[in-house]
């Protein structure tokens, strides 16, 4: 069982490499329409940790969801220290992250994400055993096992 967990962890880490490379070589404005780079402070090491994440921006605030719920390292780092750095498109800024676990708020976020990315979210819901266009009750059931973060840019 431990080997499978280690394999999953390594696969998650490998998936983070291509977006980081793309930003490093100047392709941030192109992939930044969907992916930002979030830098948190490691809760144990105190070192900066960079994670590429899909996001939605609404009224100047950035929303990111955690596919792994409260098990994601970046999410747990935010719980320990909510000050983050964000690189999105060609912008970099410092922000304060607000961890959200309220099912209603996460379901609201999922509705927006489904509207913005119907194919991707429909596929995700289907993989997780839900219809491609879940109703509110189904969204709340899905949201019960997820977390999200709202990043408020600091001036």
How would you describe this structure to a colleague?
There is one protein chain. This protein has a single domain (2-153), classed as Pnp Oxidase, Chain A (Roll). The protein has helices at residues 2-15, 17-24, 28-31, 73-80, 103-116, 118-127, 136-143, and strands at residues 35-41, 48-54, 56-58, 61-66, 83-88, 91-100, 147-153. Helix 5 (103-116) crosses helix 6 (118-127) and helix 5 packs across helix 7 (136-143). It has a seven-stranded antiparallel sheet, sandwiched between helices. Helices cover 43% and strands 30% of the residues. The protein is globular, with a radius of gyration of 16 Å. The chain has seven helices and seven strands, in the order H-H-H-E-E-E-E-H-E-E-H-H-H-E. The protein is an alpha+beta fold and 155 residues long. The relative contact order is 0.16. The mean pLDDT is 86. A hairpin with a 2-residue loop joins strand 5 (83-88) and strand 6 (91-100).
What descriptive keywords fit this protein?
Pnp Oxidase, Chain A; 155 residues; alpha+beta; globular; 7-stranded antiparallel sheet; 7 strands; 7 helices
Beta fraction:
25-35%
Helix content: 40-55%
* CATH level 4 superfamily: Electron Transport, Fmn-binding Protein, Chain A
- Structural class, from secondary structure content? alpha+beta
Could you name the CATH topology? Pnp Oxidase, Chain A
CATH architecture identity: Roll
The gross shape turns out to be globular
For the record, the CATH class is Mainly Beta
String of helices and strands: HHHEEEEHEEHHHE
Q: Give the neighbour order of strands across the main sheet.
A: 2-1-5-6-7-4-3
How many structural domains can be distinguished in the coordinates?
1
**Rg from Cα:** 16 Å
Q: What's the β-strand tally? A: 7
Number of helices: 7
From the N-terminal CA to the C-terminal CA, the straight-line distance is 46 Å
């Amino acid at each position: 069982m431990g080997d499978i967990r280690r394999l999953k962890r390594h696969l998650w880490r490998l998936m983070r490499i291509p977006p980081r490379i793309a930003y490093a070589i100047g392709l941030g404005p192109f992939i930044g329409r969907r992916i930002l780079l979030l830098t948190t402070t490691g809760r144990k090491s105190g070192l900066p940790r960079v994670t590429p994440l899909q996001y939605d921006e609404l009224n100047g605030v950035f929303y990111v969801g955690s596919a792994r719920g409260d098990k994601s390292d970046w999410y747990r780092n935010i719980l320990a220290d909510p000050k983050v750095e964000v690189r999105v498109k060609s912008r970099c800024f410092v922000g304060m992250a607000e961890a959200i676990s309220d099912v209603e708020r996460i379901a609201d976020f999922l509705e927006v994400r489904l509207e913005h990315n119907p194919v991707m979210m429909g596929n995700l819901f289907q993989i997780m055993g839900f219809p491609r266009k879940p109703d509110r009750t189904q969204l709340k059931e899905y949201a019960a096992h997820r977390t999200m973060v709202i990043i408020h840019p600091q001036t």
